[in-house]
UniProtKB/TrEMBL annotation:
This is Calcium-binding protein. It comes from Moorena bouillonii PNG. Gene3D superfamilies: Serralysin-like metalloprotease, C-terminal (2.150.10.10). It comes from the Bacteria. Its main location: secreted.
Length: 330
């Protein structure tokens, strides 16, 4: 998949496949995710986030992520997850074109038995054939990485910045304090960000996402999901299901949208706010309309509860919607 953001400071995330991620003119954060990804930051001070793909290290450079335009002079950084720092990294010059001239640097994990490759950073070799990367080019973005099993897991972070992945099964995931990245993936998951500015990704299945305190980013993904932001200016990202939804009972439920706290409803690039239709709806079946259906081409993207005024009109407006530049993991 090719994902591009044009302007502004954006967070661009890949999918579980092989992606091409391109930043714009702002200070972007680019997260490839699983797969073999090609990542280009563009102008600005960009952060390229690296992490272990699986529990098995990558030893073939052709399967590693590629960073095409790292520029330390512009303030670019390489972000490391799992509590790693620049001191945990091995740097090895590499001939990526097969012409016997080193032109890139392999970023490898020192603690891995096979020195697993995290990425190939192109254009980081000087005239003497030495890498231009140093430990100061690396920063820690997530302090802890926790990966679940194929079963039903209870995964709990700590007060640092955690990255937690549930994999298969019906998982319970809690980030605690810190700015966390929490992924349910498959199964019917319960995800709680708690304190901090968290990113919650439900994935496939019927998930319950609870942001907690802070400015959180909630993406239900495929399935019937419940999204609750709690305190702070939260963003609820809507995604289209494989088949259009016409029954409100099968659509995602946003339980506590509050525009006065800065909440927003995020639309992916495939959906324009101009194409959105807002219909009021009686969610309790008591004859009183109390929610808004967010529809795109008669496909119900979400039910937004508590968004009807005393005249039975929706309180949602175009200003409550934003376009997110990065389709999130489904």
């Amino acid at each position: 998949m090719s994902i591009t953001t044009i302007n502004g400071n954006s967070t661009v995330r890949g999918t579980q496949g092989n992606d091409e991620l391109t930043g714009g003119d702002g200070d972007d954060v680019l997260i490839g995710g699983f797969g073999t990804d090609t990542v280009t930051g563009g102008n600005g001070s960009d952060t390229f986030v690296l992490g272990l793909e699986t529990t098995s290290p990558i030893t073939d450079p052709s399967l590693a992520d590629v960073i095409t335009d790292f520029n330390a002079a512009e303030g670019d950084k390489i972000g490391l997850t799992g509590g790693l720092s620049g001191e945990d990294i091995l740097l090895e010059v590499f001939d990526s074109n097969g012409d016997s001239t080193a032109d890139g640097t392999l970023v490898k994990l020192a603690s891995s038995p096979d020195n697993g490759i995290l990425a190939l950073v192109q254009g980081t070799v000087n005239a003497q054939g030495e890498t231009t990367l140093t430990s100061t080019d690396f920063i820690t973005t997530y302090d802890n990485t926790i990966i679940g099993t194929e079963g039903d897991d209870e995964l709990v972070g700590d007060n640092s910045n955690d990255q937690i992945q549930g994999l298969q099964g019906n998982d319970q995931i809690s980030g605690e304090a810190g700015d966390d990245l929490l992924k349910g993936n498959q199964g019917n998951d319960s995800i709680n960000g708690k304190d901090g500015n968290d990113i919650l990704l439900g994935g496939a299945g019927n998930d319950s996402l609870d942001g907690g305190d802070g400015e959180d980013f909630l993406v239900g993904g495929i399935g019937l999901d419940s999204l609750t932001g709690w305190n702070g200016g939260d963003t609820f990202v809507l995604t289209q299901e494989t088949n259009p939804i016409t029954d409100p009972g099968l659509a995602d439920q946003i339980t506590d949208f509050n525009k006065f706290e800065g909440d927003k409803i995020g639309l992916t690039v495939e959906v324009s706010v101009d194409d959105i239709v807002l219909d009021v709806f009686d969610s309790d079946g008591n004859g009183i309309v109390d929610a808004t259906l967010v529809k795109f081409n008669n496909d119900i993207l979400a039910v937004v509860q508590g968004t009807v005024d005393g005249q039975s009109a929706s309180t949602l407006t175009d200003a409550d919607f934003i376009t997110v530049s990065d389709p999130i993991l489904a």
